[in-house]
């Protein structure tokens, strides 16, 4: 059995890994490095574009629970992420270069995978064959292929635009001002914190509001995804928006003053040797000369050298519930064609990998008379269910406990809430996933 996979991002490689274990012969198509997207910089698979963090590891956090579920399902992405982990407190962050290189090597070394380095501009040849096709080209699908997808899907793609944070040279940080600490001292002091006084913070907000920006069209402006909102757009929402958002100082104490700063910019290491740091929550579409100027207003970064500028780039996704066959998880028009990853409306690195995994599972299980859907009391199963659930305003969704929200009562019949409730839900989820793996993955 032959499966053609277009796209070697998080979804494509996870699907490839799963199907190779099941004995499928796979043709994996990736256009980089012959042609790069607006945001990719390398030829390596599963390249991290925005942050190098896969977010929390806590089981009472939906992102942490999803990673644990993926680990139980023998995820290639999660396994590799742990191999190239960099310090990030209670989060899972990776050395992005080593991570991507390793994923690429592992996939190319699979005996039943044929890698084809070319851009796919037409789907005609794939449609003529009695083979399976998984389109996992992500939110940065090339224009020609996007046109083919729109024809195939029968629906116009939806668009939104997002932004990524700058990365700076660690050696140019003023460590007399910036201090290492994780919030509430959870884990090691893996984050650096640039502390602001009230006056410094208000100056920064004003400069952000007035900064020269790369402006999208009116249509694009309406489609910016909230989770990647540019810092300058947040500043326009009100003077305190950043202080209560990505610059909140809660849980941090400046050792020089013994007090909580008015606001902070946190920096997270990008690589194992800590030579690069990105500005957490500081994604931006400011023009490059403005980024230089604004970053120098951050206490301790007066002489910071920018190694990678923040950029705005295109993201696109399909109204997937309208085109999906709910019994097969393929598309309605052709039972041999599947979509996976962010193009289906999941949002985030691990969510994209999860989509690749549950899409590949649906393909394989459909051929073996097994259930195609993962259990919806787990984050991964609930994400899959979400991509099949129609609503008037279908938008990208990251893993969250709201997807598996339900009432839980204690022995006295009272509702259990908060962290206790999440802990119970997490434990149930892992128990369900373990049973599901043994019953359905083998």
Describe the protein.
The protein is of the alpha/beta class. The chain has two domains: 2-157 and 318-440, FAD/NAD(P)-binding domain (3-Layer(bba) Sandwich), CATH 3.50.50.60; 163-313, Elongation Factor Tu (Ef-tu), domain 3, CATH 2.40.30.260. It has helices at residues 10-21, 62-72, 76-83, 96-108, 124-128, 143-153, 198-210, 218-221, 231-235, 288-295, 320-323, 349-367, 379-386, 418-440; strands spanning 2-6, 25-29, 53-56, 85-86, 91-94, 113-116, 132-135, 158-163, 167-169, 179-180, 191-196, 263-269, 276-279, 306-308, 312-317, 337-339. A hairpin with a 4-residue loop joins strand 4 and strand 5. The longest helix is centred in the last third of the chain and has 23 residues, at 418-440. It is globular. The model is unreliable at 217-222 (pLDDT under 50).
